[in-house]
Specification:
The chain is α+β, with helices and mostly antiparallel strands and 103 residues long. The protein has five helices and two strands. The protein is globular and about 35 Å long. Strands 1-2 form a two-stranded antiparallel sheet. The protein starts with 23 loop residues before the first strand and ends with a helix. The chain has one domain. Helix 1 packs antiparallel against helix 4.
């Protein structure tokens, strides 16, 4: 019998498998409000998605941080993705609030 993790999709941000039972989300590489409606999406862990939106505005995402590689290279997100990559594939914890929402 095949190992189910062999067929699980991989999160392009933290590079962990995404099991069916794990919290997951579709991330629009260009936010819908910034012209990305109908544009490319990627399946990511919910914790990775939450962290992206806590760290970056939709304008920043649309203009500069619009590929998985660029997001992994971000000075705040890169270390987070490296940290979460050491956790189990179904790990989830509350993310910090967005700096824009704390004000």
């Amino acid at each position: 019998m095949a190992d189910p993790s062999d067929t699980d999709p991989t999160c392009p941000l933290c590079l962990r498998p995404i099991p069916q039972h794990a919290k997951q989300s579709l991330h629009h590489l260009v936010p819908k409000l910034r012209g990305g409606k109908g544009g490319p999406t990627i399946l990511v862990h919910q914790i990775c998605h939450n962290e992206v939106h806590a760290a970056l505005s939709e304008t920043e995402l649309a203009r500069e941080w619009n590929t998985p590689g660029k997001l992994r290279a971000h000075p705040v997100l890169g270390p987070f993705f490296a940290w979460v990559a050491k956790r189990p594939p179904d790990f989830h914890a509350r993310s910090r609030r967005s700096a824009r929402r704390r004000r």
